[in-house]
Every structure is written in structure tokens, then in C-alpha cells.
Amino acid sequence: MLRRPKPSDCEADLLREQEEFLTSGASSAATVVRRPDKRRGEAGAGGEEEGERGEYNRENKGREKDVVTIEDLPDQLPSLTPAPPKKSRFKASRVTFEDEDAGERLDRHDMHVSAVLSKIVERDTTSTPVSLPAFTGMAFPKVLHCSETSSQATLSSTVGKKSIFARQLAAQRQKEGKTPLHCAPEAAHTPEHRKQNLPPETSMDTEPSAASCLSLLSGQGLGASDSSAETMRIHRENQAKLQAMSQSEILQEQKKLLCQLDPGLVDFVRSRKAQSVPSSASASASKQPWGKSSKDNFSLGNKSRQSVSSGAAVLFQKPREVEMEREEDLPPPPAVTEMDLLLKPQKEWVHMDKLEPEKLEWMRDLPAPKRKGTKKAMQARFDFAGTLIPPTEDLPTHLGLHHHGEEPEQAGYSLQELFLLSRSQLIQQRSLALGTLSNILSKARAGEYLSVLKGSMVSSLLDAGLLFLLRFALDDSVEGVMSAAVHALKALLVCEDDEECLDGTFSWFRGLASFPLLPSAQEEEEEDDAGLPECMKDTAKEKEERKTDHDVARQDVVKGLLKMKLLPRLRYILEVFRPSPRVVQDVLQILIRIARHSALSATQVLDCPRLMETVLSEFLPVSWTAPSSSIPQSVYRLPVASAMKLLRVLATSGRHTCARLLNSLGVKERLPCLLSAEPGQLLLEPTEALRITTEAYRLWAVAAGYGQACKLYIDLYPSLAKTLQSVHTVLALSGPLLPLQIQRVLALLSLLTQVTHTAGCHQELQAGMVSSQGEECPPPPPVSWGHVTGLQASLLGHLRGFVKNLDNPVQKDISLAVIPAYLVYLEAYYHQLSRQHCFKPVEALQELERLASELLLPLLSHHVVQGLIKNLKASSVVCNVQSSHRDPETTPSLPGLACSGWRDRSWLVAPSSPFPLLTALGLLLETITGIHKGLSYKFNSLLLSEPVIGYLRSCSQAVPTLSHTRAWLVRHEHHLLYLLLRLAHRLVSIEPEVAKHASMYHQVALVLLPWLLPGSEYLGHELLSSIIFNKDFISEGHSGGPEAVELGELKLQEETHHHTSPSLQTVGALLREACIQLPSIRGCFLTHLAHLESSVLTSRDALLGRGPWISSHLLPELTGPTVPSDWPFLPLVSLYESTGLSDGGGLEVEHLPQGALQAVSHCLQWLLLLEVWREEALKVILPVAKLARLSCVFLCSSDLFLERPVQKLAWGLFRLLTRQSRLDSLDLNIPPPGLASFQDLYTALLSQYEAVSFGDRLFGCWVLLPLQRRYSATMRLAVFGEHVGMLRSLGVTLEQLSIPIERFTSPPEDSLPLLHLYFRSLVTGTLKPRWCPVLYVVTLSHVNTFIFSQDAAAQEVEAARHSMLRKIYYLTDEVLRNHLLLFRLPQQHSEFGFDLYEQLPPIRAKRLESVLKQQDSSDDKGD
């Protein structure tokens, strides 16, 4: 058997196989035939061809082409049934009609040859004019030479591409005065005002003309006799309709036609019109002015192409109302002619004899910008400074803002064009584009585009790939491009106003701490490892490594940059490029922003090879020489303040990072070099010298906050004392350096405050080391209390001097700036003094009395301070959530502090803000009143002042939002609120005037607790321990509050004449019991919050200045408040999560965890107290969330709700939740927090009721509440469908239900399946009045309303009405039949809960009779 060739065979193999085939003599699989050529007269089809084929092939072998055919193949291709049907892209654009027959459409589109041949119709040419050739004296026509065709070029160019013969014929007709067949004789026009007002695409000739003038109607196919007349009649009718329409109507109809017609048909119509325009243009040009003739040449296609290009980074300006200027009112520029050329073409130039105007258009002068009267957004364009250019502004060309883009007349560059230029091969274009993008980013971060641009500028740029563009540009080998990229990256990441605000609040209480600037946590979209066991699932680190750079950068910009190896590139720029001072500053600020991102990012900065070594050796040298000029050309080998700030931010991330900086990298040796001398002696420019010493003090303060670098305090004590002595002298001088001098003094005071805290812990650490017995204990710091006691007298003298300077208008602002730092230092001193063994109580109390009377009270009563306090509410962040000031632009992947423009608004960090002074004063009062409790009453004026009371009242009603832009500020405001409440706690029991406002203070404490952010857990613990459950703040409990509630209940019962609950204790008695149990309630909640103990201890160490125990000054990640807003329900939810979810709510009380019953009782008592007296504190919790949380009483156990204490409290809460105002606000369609929907919870409640309720009335009311008519029918379907058995035990009466029955019966039910279930439950006896009185009345009402309804309805609904009415009429149960037919209205005090008609009203009787007659007539027809 011969082998078939394979693809791997070479040429020798193929030749060998061919030889084997020929020698074998086998027949070939293919036959070579020759197809006859009919054009040469060869034989065609038939048997004659078959006979001659072989001979012909032999004769012509070798000189004709061979055709290979394969035998035994079918004539038709096999059908590909499994293949998907092909979709035609033309089918969607075809116009079809609903009433069109499908068969006719198939016949019309049948393309078979038989169908085509059968539909051939001869064209009617009787009305077509025939032009005979002209008679000449020549025997034959004249031969056409090529030289004669040049004269016809003009005509052919206007008409279109034609053959030479057609052009010759057209020229002959034109010579004889005849009109070509395709064009029309010149026609008259309508009045000029019609032509001017219509757009060019709607203007047309309106006078009658010959049929051949029409570009669309030719008259062919109308018949020989009247085709021309019929064409003219249609034309006149169209013209008459157009004349009767206004311009707006014409435009509207035209727009409608363009939307309905096939685009291909529209193009065909335009092409027909375009063919007729050139021939008539020359004739009309002589009769019209230039403007009109050129104006009429505009077409709709030109206008449709004038659209704004869209790209990846395109922003649009918001619509503006500008003056309308129609584009057709502007004449188009004339075409470029040879006369307009500066250089005339010569005949000798090869291929230059033809003028191409379209290629010379770009050489024209730019047209004026068009003022488009449109409401559509327009593409944003910017100048080189990043300023947005209005689209109507006409800028001169010498500014360099015009270019050959899509809109050459518009000045400026769009973002898409800047992106394109940034990847140009020209260095100047790359630098220019990156610089412009940098300016745009700076203005966008400042919020300058918020009012003029639609969408977020920064988000749009990031989505377009700006981050990768800048990262690529950083790798550019050209220093100019690299510098521009660094500046743009700094503009994207760093907001200078944010840094200024953080630096300005450094000296505030806990100002050195800050939140990490991490984006909000987002849910992972990919669930590849869902369902896998824990051992096989990828860790978070593995998932992070598997993500692409784009995915990481989309969620977190800083993390994306770190993944793209930004840090090694920045180190290379600093180490190898050694760029200009501006680039160095930008790189250092970028590193600062990365270090603020998180502790992990700070660690990566510290661990980057040679990065920190380069920064320290080049920008924080141990020795340096003075620069030759005030503005040095290079900052290398000179101290740079930004480098010191970078070290400070890195040290804030953790004590271990700070220790590495101080010890391993040699920062501890560099601090004395900068701080041992005065700033003027540092051989630096004065501004830079002040800044770097300020940052050095701040870095030292951060280290001292960990208990580190305190040995330097002993070594540099003389220098510090000298600096303190010169404070008044330095601050008394005015000049441009004064703000920097103030910041330096504040940084020094912060350092002394931290050193004092650390020295105060020395004694405790020393004792702990002795008693630790081998356990891990921090070592005592080298500085002790004796090293810092001498500072207090000096700083107290400074404070007295600054308080006196408040009367001096020149020194007032300086004093207000530094007094808070002095007060914070005094608080640290007295707080640590009371814990020392050397503390002398008598002397200390006398000293505190002198401090209060001689310093603090005069300061508090000073008119300047009182004026500041009046700004309390205006400067608050909590009270001004809906402020008119718009926050600067932020993006989720790059959070910021939104401090842009902070100097121009009344804000918490503004100079006019009272928050730093009041917080420092409140902090000092909290400490000294804890030592000397008799001083508290002297400061009641602070709590009783009108501004403070108004501020606290506003806070009690505020609902602030949580975000990065507000969290760092709200934290300081929380400190002030807490300190005011602590002062009120000391005064409420001894000062009657303060006690009058006790309920307001309690309300503020309740709303403040769920506001507290991570890092403030200790404040929340103190509020719970001392204020929230304090009976002194619940004044209603001991001033007749419970009695007032009881009287209100009695009055309500007298007005309604019925009791709304069983004979249980009233709410007043329950409130009285709750007030007695307040200490136990407090213990219950503190127990359930015990999981926060470690966070509370960490927060306590930070807030009380226990530096050696602080692990990081970086606050925890901002994931949400410390305590949830629904914390009053915490014991209930915890019990349900521990028992109800795992055991399905089947545990009995004795099997519940120990103390569960008591915890639930205390929780319900607290909720009852809040619902009655502190309703405003629970307004943040949705009513549906309250109902869902309280439902845990029934779901967490099988009999917990049957316990007597729980029953009483739950009944009281149910009556409070079902008051008229509460029912109106209860929306069960909103999913409760933590649940997918309320329907899921209700299904669990129904199952639990069937299983364990035993017909309990309280549980029954709970189940009936969601069955009100206004809520979803799904829950009613669940009761009457899946859980219909519960109707036998749902014995709640109308008197026991505190909800009006009208809420269940009105409006009438419109769900047909539900009505069928109602009727079935009644007829089958599942629902009876003695088993379920409430739902019996409800179903009767809905069924009765349905069967007697006269409203028009669908045929199905009407048939159901008739069927149901007939079945009711023929019911054998007379009682049910009468109830259904004679039901009138629900009536609570009647026997069955409703009233009945004595007999059917006439209209209902008539309807019943008509329905029965229809049934009889249908029966007769059936017979």
C-alpha cells in the first residue's frame, strides 16, 4: 500500500514517492479535465462534449490550464445544522412594519434566479425624452482626441465621474442649449426671509418646476400619460405643506425623519441632492449675494461630523447658557485659489500643475471660536498653567495654545492631547505635557474645578492611566522629563494644605498622633477559593501578590506605586541624578506621603536599600559649609527640613521604627548638631534654619513619647533652658519669620510635655522592674521626675505673661497661639505630680487654688477668650455637616484630609477657632479638679455660658458622617466634648444650675459614644462608667418622670376607651424599676463590651501619656466607630448569635448561658428608658432595625419571651413602637442593617411561632405587626400559604392589639392570589373567629370588598369576583355566608369584631342578582 505524503517530507521524499506511484500503475484519485471555452467556440454541454473531451485534452496537453475534480462528492454542500445561525449586520437597520405579511417579505427578498427572472418588468420609457444626435455633413462622426477632453474637465468635475463619450455628449447638449437629463432648469425661489430662516438642510425650491427638477421624484413607473403631472402634483403638495409649517416645526419633523429612516437611505437621499446641487449652483450664483450662496451649500452631514472627540482622559465642561450663534449664519471661507498662494507653481515642476485646496486649508488663519448655543457638555481645555479656558474665549496665537488638533480654532490642550504629548519623542513636548498635567493636578486637588467641570478630575485621570504614565516618565533618561514627572507625581499625592494643618495641630492634645491614610476597605470581587477548606485557601499576602499592578493601583494608589518599584527609582534619582532643589523637595514630600499611608508603607521606606542612608548623608549631614548664596543651586550636603520631617513621620509609625532611626541610622547624633545652637548660628538660610530646628524638636517629641531619646534631654538641658528664656524676646519681634518662630516654640513645648510624661513614669517602671520577677517590663527611662520639676515655674511665668498680653492687640494673636501648649504642659505636670512619692497634698492643693484664682479664672473670663467661645458652634465640624463649603476633590483610592483653603473659612483649625484653647483648658481642669475637687464649682460658668449650651444642644441633634476628610478633625472635637461632659459630671451633683441641664448632657454623652473613633476607646469606657448610666444625669427618674408616664397612659386609655395590653404593670412602673437597676445595667453593658479591653488599655496609655507602654503614635485604621450605633441592643444580639443561630432558637431558659435572662432584662429596661426619655439618642437607628433587634427575644430561646420580666418589658416596648408616629415611620421594605431583607427574618419568626409560641399574645402581636396592608404582600402570602397552620393559635383580640385595625383593612387588597388564599382559609374552616379574631376580620373585609367591587378590572379579576360571589351564595355554612355577604365595618367592641348589615344594600343585592342570572343563562346555553 502506497504511503500518503506527510508535511514533514522533504523534496527528495516527494520525488521518491512519485516514482513509486508511477511504477505501481495504480489509478489516480483525481481526473484532469479541460473545461470548454465557449468564447472560442469550443464544445459546450451535452454528450458531444463527453465524446470529444478526451481527444481535446490530449491535443492541448501542456499548453492549457488543468482543472482538478474529485469524484464521488455531492453536488450540494452538506447542511451545518449544529452551527450557530449567522447574524446579518444589515438586518437590524431594515425598516419593518407590524402588519406586514411574513410571506410577502420572504417573496420580496427571494434572490433565486427563478424569482428574479419572473419579476422582470420592462421600464416605461414613453415619457422619457429622447435626444437625437445632431445632423452633420460628415459621413462618419468625428474622431475624439484626448486633447479635446480637457475642455470638459470643469463640467465632469462638478457632475461626477463619467466616461469620455458621456462627457462629449453632455458638452454637445450644453452647446446646443439643451439641459442635461439629470439637472433641472433654473427655477424661481420663495421669498428671501424663508430661505434665510431655514437651515440649509431644510431649505428647498418652493416654486413649481418641471418634473425633472426634482432630485428624488422621477415619475418612472406612473404610466405614460400622467407621470409628469402626477410628479408635479406631489411636488406642489410637499411645497404647500412646507410653507404652512414654521421653522421649528420643520426642524422637528426633520429630526424625527432622521431618527426613523435607515441611515443608508438618508445617505442615498443626500447623494441625490448633492448631484443636483453643482449644476444649479453656477446658475444661482449670479442672482444671489456671496453669503447666501455659500450659506446654502452647508449640508447636514457636515454638522453631524462636528462632534467632540472622546478618549480615555477626557473631561467635559458643564453646560453653559451662552448666546446662540447659528453655524449656518457664518459664511464658509472661500476655497484656496492660485492667487492666494505666496509661491506660484511653475510649469516645469513635475506633478505640481494641479491645485489641491483641501491640502492647503491648514495654512489659513484660524477661524474665530464659535459660540455654540448648546446644553451639551463641551470638552475641557487648559493652558500651560492648568487654568480652564472657556470655549468662547478668543486667545491670541502667540501664547502657543493653538495646535493642529480636532478643533484648531480652540485654544488650549485637552487631557487626551496632553496624554499623547507626554509620550512624544520630542523632549520639549514631553516636559511641557507633564508640567501642564502637574498644574492641572494641583488645581484639581485644591478644588478649583468643582464648579466648572463635570465629574472628578483626579478620578478621571487615574482611570485613564495617569499613574502608569507618570511611573514610565520617571524612568526617562532626560533629567527635565524626569523632573516634570516627579513634580506631577507630587501634585497627585501631596496636598500642601493638608500637611500644614497636620503640622499646625501637632502641639494640640494628642496632636502628634494621626490616622493612616488608607483607602476604605473594599470587598474582594474575586471568589476563586470559595468553598475550599481553610488549609487550601490563599492567604491575604498571596492574594495581594497575585494581583496585577493595575488592580492594586485601582484600589490603592500608594500601594500600587510601591508595587511598581517607586522607592528604588526615587533612591536612584536622589543618588545618581542629584537633581535640583525643587526636585529634591518633591521627592521628600512624596516619601512623607507614602510614610503616612500605613505602618507597612513606612517600613518599606525604611527598608528600601540605600534610600534612608542617602537621605541622611546628603540632606542631614553631621557637618556642612555655609551656602554661597541665599538660594543655593544644590541642597546636597546641607540640612533639609523636609528630610527631618520624613524622619518624624516614619518615627510616628511605631516605636521600633523610631528606635532604628535613632540608633541604627545615627539620627540621635544629628539632633544635637541642630539643637545645641541657635537657628541663626546654623550657617543656613534663616527660614530653613527655623524649619529644620522645628522639625528636629518634633522628631524628638515623638521619640520622647515612646520614652526614647530622653538622655538627650539631660545633655541638652542648658540649650533648652536658654531657648526657654528667650521665648518672650523672640515672639515680641514682628516680621516674616514670626509664624516660624511660633511653630518652633510650640514644638519645644510639645517636647517638654512628652519628656514630663516620660519622667513621671520613671517611678512606676522602677517599681515594676523590681516586682516583675522575670516578666517582661519596659526599662525605666534615663530621665526621672527630678529632672523636670524645675521647668514648671519657668513655664508658668511664661503663661502668666502671655495671659497679660491678651490685652495688647499686637500680641493677642501670638498669645492665643501659644497658650494652649502651655496649658497642655501644665496638665501633664500636675497629672504626673499626683502619682509621685514626693507629692505633698496640702502644698499641691494650695498651689492649685492659686493657679485657678490667679490664672485660669481670669483667662476664662477674659473678653478675648469669651469672643473665641462665641465661635464654638461656627467652627464645629459636628454641627456643620451640611456646610455650604464644598470639600476639595478626593478620590477613594487616594484619601486626603480636604484642607485646601482652610485659611479662608471658619474651621476647627482656623486662627479664630476656640477648640485648641478650650480643649487644653478642659484637659487641665479635668486634672486639677480630680486632685482638688473643691475647685469644680468655680468653673461652672464655662458650662452655663450660652455659647457652650447652644453648642452642646446642636451636637445632641447632629448626625455626622464618617470619612477620612473629617476624622482627623472630629477626633479633636470629641476630646472637647468629652472634657465638657467630665466637668459636668463633677458639677451635676453639687451645682443646681448645672443639674437643670443634666438631661442635655446625658443626651450629648449618648450621641458621642457611637461617634468615637478608633484610638478613643478609653473615652467611651469612661462615658459608660461615669455618665451614661449615672442616675444624676437621668433627672426624670427622680423628678416625677415615671409618674408622668403613668398619668399619660391613663389619659390615653380614657380618650380611647379601651386597654391596649393585658393587665400587666404600666410603663411608669417599669421605668421606676429600671432607674433602680441602673448600676446593674451598667455592669451588663460593660461585660458585653469586654472584647474591647485591649483597645481600651492601649487608648488609655496614649491619652494619659504613658509613653513607655505606647507601641505606635499611628492610630488604628479608620474602619468605623469604636462602638456600633445600635449598642443598646448589644446583649440581645450577642445572645442570639451565641444560641439562636447555632441551635435554631430551641434552647430553654435553663439551658441558656448563665445570666442570660438577667442580661436580656437589663437590656430591655435600658431600651425602655431610652425610648421614653431619650428618644433623640436612638434616632440614628432605623425603626425597622429596632424591630429586627427586638425580635431576637423570640428567636434566641424557646421560652425566654414567656418569662415574666421579659413579658412585661417587651409589652411596654411593643406599645411604644406601635404608637401612631412610630408606625408611620416604620418601613419594612428597607433591609435592616446586617440582614438581606426583613422578609427573611419574618419567615424565621413564623417558624418559631408555630414551634414554640403556645398561642402567646405578645408573640402573636409581634407576628401581626408586619401584616399591615401598607407592607409587602409577600409576608401575608407566607402566613396564609406556607404557615397557614398558625392561624389556629393566633388568638390576639382586637383589644389586645395596639394597632388600629384600619391599617390592616385599608386600602382593599389587590393581590388576586392572596384573595384566593383568604377565601380558601375561610371556606375550609382554617380561619375561625374564635381562633384568630384579628385576621378573621381582616379577611372578611378584603373578600367582601373584592366581591362587591364595581371598579373596572381585567377579565381574570372580574371572573374571580363572579366565581367567588356565586360560591359564597351557595355556601351551606349560614353564619359564614352572612358574614361574607353582610359585612359592613370592623367594630372593636362587637361580638365578632365587626358590624353586619341587616340585609344587603340595594346596589349589592342587584350585583348578586346579576351574577346569579349570568350563571343561569350560561347553564341554559349548556343544556
Compile the SSE list and pairings.
Layout: H1 11-24, E1 30-33, H2 47-59, E2 67-70, H3 102-108, H4 113-118, H5 153-159, H6 164-175, H7 192-197, H8 227-244, H9 247-260, H10 263-285, H11 290-295, H12 300-304, E3 316-317, E4 378-379, H13 415-422, H14 427-445, E5 453-454, H15 457-463, H16 466-474, H17 479-493, H18 496-504, H19 540-546, H20 549-555, H21 557-563, H22 566-577, H23 581-597, H24 599-607, H25 611-619, H26 641-652, H27 655-664, H28 667-675, H29 686-705, H30 711-715, H31 717-725, H32 727-732, H33 738-760, H34 762-771, H35 791-804, H36 812-833, H37 841-861, H38 863-869, H39 872-875, H40 915-931, H41 940-944, H42 946-956, H43 964-987, H44 992-995, H45 998-1008, H46 1017-1028, H47 1041-1056, H48 1067-1076, H49 1078-1088, H50 1093-1103, H51 1130-1143, H52 1156-1173, H53 1183-1190, H54 1192-1195, H55 1204-1217, H56 1220-1225, H57 1238-1252, H58 1257-1264, H59 1273-1280, H60 1302-1305, H61 1312-1323, H62 1333-1347, H63 1355-1369, H64 1374-1382, E6 1383-1386, E7 1394-1396, H65 1402-1422
Antiparallel strand pairs: 1-2, 3-4, 3-5, 6-7
Strand content is: under 5%
Regions with little confidence, pLDDT below 50 for 5+ residues: 43-71, 150-159, 178-213, 277-314, 320-328, 523-527, 1057-1064
Q: What is the C-alpha radius of gyration, as a whole number of Å? A: 46 Å
The neighbouring-strand order within the major sheet is 4-3-5
Alpha-carbon distance between the two ends: 86 Å
Query: What is the share of helical residues?
Result: 40-55%
Structural class: mainly alpha
Q: Estimate the mean pLDDT confidence.
A: 81
**3D shape:** globular
Counting DSSP E segments of at least 2 residues, the number of strands comes to 7
